[in-house]
Amino acid sequence: MAELLDFCAVSGTGLIPGSALRASGMTTYTVRQLLVRGELAQVRRGWYVLGHQWRDARPEERYRYLVRATAAQSRAELVLSHHSAAVMHGLPLIGPWPATAHALFPDAAGGSSHRLLTSHRTLADPQPIVIDGVTVTSLTRTVVDMAAGSTFLVGVTMVDHVLHQEEVRLQREQRTGLRGAVPITKESLLAELLLVHPRIGRRRRAGHRLRERALSQPG
Fold first, then answer.
1. Looking at the DSSP assignment, which residues form a beta bridge with residue 48?
2. Which of 49, 170, 199, 217 lies at 20 to 30 Å from 152 by C-alpha?
3. How far apart are alpha carbons 148 and 123 in whole angstroms?
4. What one-character-per-residue DSSP string does 90-135 give?
5. CATH no., domain 2-56
């Protein structure tokens, strides 16, 4: 049984689809017993990981399992955003990760939240990227969305982290002579904020340093 579960888990993500368990001949009762014994852990309905992987996983890793499973489960391709994009970008979070995945749904007004998916009816991201097979908002857009919709401390932490990482990258590029992507700066983050969250951006623009205000404060 252990060998079978290890085989099912060889997907690069550790996720085991319920369809793979059924195809292997496991019944609902068998899967339930594996869950009870801790040999298997359920990430969401129809998606599992090996029990020891779940127990050893840090909070951000457990949330990443949920994000990947939600993206794989969706019939339509999702552009994951906010916390879900943040965890895929490897951004730090002050406080707990949410219990739902977050995605952009720009073609409708308002927002909604289902049991495992929170939708954000806002501008589409023209330059989403793919990380480990999951489509997410760009790093700039992710930081702006998190800073605009989270607490001041969360925003400050993410903004400072990204600006520090960009500074380190630029120093490395200067040493090696290799040039990468256009750097993210306070000015580029503020420009994105004014585009995506204009009301918040205008309110926070005058007289405030970007990191001091973390781009914005909710409310």
1. 16, 42
2. 170
3. 14
4. T---SSPPPSSEEEE-TTSSS-EE-SSEEEE-SPPPSS-EEETTEE
5. 1.10.10
Question: What would the two tokens of residue 214 be?
Answer: 């973390």
In sequence order, the β-bridge partners of residue 80 are 103, 136
**What is the rounded CA–CA span in Å between residue 36 and residue 67?**
24
pLDDT tens for each residue of 142-179: 999 998 888 888 988 999 999 999 999 999 988 888 88
What global pTM score does this model have?
A: 0.85
**20 burial via Cβ count (<10 Å: 0-12, 13-18, 19+):** middle
Q: Reduced to 3 states, what is the DSSP secondary structure of residue 181?
A: coil
**Residue 111 in tokens:** 């927002």
How would you classify the pairing of strands 117-120 and 101-104? Answer: parallel
Neighbours of 88 (CB within 10 A): 24
Return the closest-CA partner of residue 216 out of 144, 157, 162: 144
Token pair 């994951």: residue: 80
- Average pLDDT per run of 10 along the chain, which is 219 residues long? 61 84 91 95 94 96 96 91 98 96 77 73 93 96 92 89 94 87 90 84 49 46
- In this structure, what token pair is assigned to residue 26? 């496991």
Task: List the chain domain ranges.
Answer: 2-56, 60-213
Rounded CA separation 174/214 (Å): 28
